[in-house]
Design goal:
single chain; alpha/beta; DHBP synthase
Length: 226
Amino acid sequence: MQEDNEMEMPGFNYFWIEPDNPDQHILRKAVECLNRPGVILHATETVYGLAAHWDDETALQKVSHIKRRPPEQPYSIMIDDIESALTLSGWNSVELRRLLEVLFPAPLTLLLPRKRPLEPDFWNQFPEIGFRMPAHTLSRELVRQVGAPLITTSANLSGEAPPASIAEVNREILTGVDCTLDSGVCELKTPSTVVRIDVESGNYTILRPGAFPGQRLQELIKSVWK
């Protein structure tokens, strides 16, 4: 391995990076890759994911191509502050703001109704947007250093199980991305819990049980919508 933890591998750039104290030099390389625009593979607290600029049509298409996923399927948006979720979804709700403050960061994907049109038009085919603020320093630091939200999706071919380590990532994914950040085995090894929120009523539906406990979710939502 080279001095700066960088290693050239066929078809992509590979870096070892600590998830809790990420090397700034490697982060800059990852951000440069994202800004091309490119797609990076990185760990979260749940499973490995793919990240790219949320508002770049080329990046969106590239992620779909890498995953062999139909373009009409949505992606979640990875954020590092709750204002981004409120702005992109179009909501101005005191209760929702409070809920985001108590829920995030967490191994949770929160689906909110979309109240405003977005660019690119890709997002306007979906009535909801999923937001993810990982409890994971590296993931949030990527968003912060790019200066804008990123799309996030598990790093697997469509229909396959999401990987919890680089060793589990399909070779087709590895050779398709522009940059790989290896942080070892993910802490939770389980995908995020996906929950749909009715902002008007405070009702919610868990669409996919996952790493965030359902009982804890219920307690936190009830603490906001009493």
